[in-house]
Amino acid sequence: MFEIKMNELSLDKLHRIAIKLPINRNHILYKDSYNALIQFTRESISKIDETTLIALAHMAYGWMPTMLKKTEIRKDYLEILRRINAGENTIDLYRKLSSITNNSIVGASKLLHFINPEKYGIFDSRVYKSITRCKTTDANNGKKYVIYISKVRELIEQNEHHQLKEIKNELIKKNYLEKEHTPFRTIEVCLYAGSK
Question: Can you give the residue range of the structural domain that contains 162?
């Protein structure tokens, strides 16, 4: 069912979601904290080591309702970062990264997004529910995250009639985004906010 719904996802559908969204009254909470986390990650990546990667995992996980309990030190952290920077979209990468985020693909997606916001989007229960319109969620699934990332990349590449710009402008106007936010963030925020 998820794969069918992902195949049905289009820029037209996202644009309709964006148009229906109300003005975001909590924009300072989301935009300011998001911008601070992106900036901190950019600055931290320049001096990356396994301790920094664990700290960034805690930071990204801070957007989740629970604390990290399992943060396995990865000796291959430089190889993982190389793969993230290359934009790799594999279950293997997500499993390795989830080993420092309580075995959570959702937590790994947040960490991936903060490290490389041009290539990865956040995938959580609200994004999942917006796509499937199901009350239950299976967002903590590496295969589904691969499908999600592939589809969003496809939509960004297609961007027929500059619809992504229209969606982004609608979200900026309603206080969900700022102009410097990436296409991935645009699609993810549209889905997240449209889940209500």
Answer: 2-193
